[in-house]
């Protein structure tokens, strides 16, 4: 190293790890699925280390977001014959909420925690069962929003 500039020379320009605040813990980023409650989901220090109740709360939060996403995707909130401008604004607002929830669920799953993945899939499955399948709905009723494309 050349002085205290924080760069490693001769290593292709790779920088050394950044200096961290002494009181801040260092969290490893998982790149494969793992099991356990010691994870971070969506927010810094959420649900926290060795805190089972907060981990369960985080799982419930992800489940509810997935479930609400399915409800929103299959809901019928606009009455037939509504004003086109008002209906368009409501559709746009619903679309923004649906996309935002989709990204939040995706980011939660990107924590690579197996429990988070399972509750996200379970929330989507149960939500689709209640709101999208023929078990509880009439097949001829369309939702206000077009289906999401992958």
3D structure, described in words:
44% of the residues lie in helices and 0% in strands. By secondary structure, it is mainly alpha-helical. The protein has one domain (27-150). The chain is elongated, with a radius of gyration of 22 Å. Residues 1-14 have low confidence and may be disordered.
Number of strands: 0
Individual helix count: 3
Tell me the distance between the termini.
Answer: 47 Å
How much of the polypeptide forms β-strand, as a percent range? Answer: under 5%
Mean pLDDT: 79
Order of helices and strands: HHH
- Please give the share of residues in helix: 40-55%
Instruction: Specify Rg, calculated over alpha carbons.
Output: 22 Å
Point out poorly predicted stretches.
1-14
Summing up helix and strand content along with how strands pair, one would put the structural category as mainly alpha
The largest sheet, given as strand count, sense and whether it forms a barrel, is:
none
Please tell me the total number of domains: 1
Based on CA inertia axes, which overall geometry fits? elongated
Summarize the structure.
This protein has 150 residues and is mainly α. The chain contains three helices and no strands. One of its GO terms (cellular component) is plasma membrane.
Task: Give the topology.
Elements: H1 52-73, H2 84-109, H3 114-131
Helix pairs in contact: 1-2, 1-3
Question: What keywords describe this structure?
Answer:
membrane; ion transport; transmembrane helix; mainly alpha; disordered N terminus; 3 helices; copper transport; elongated; about 150 residues
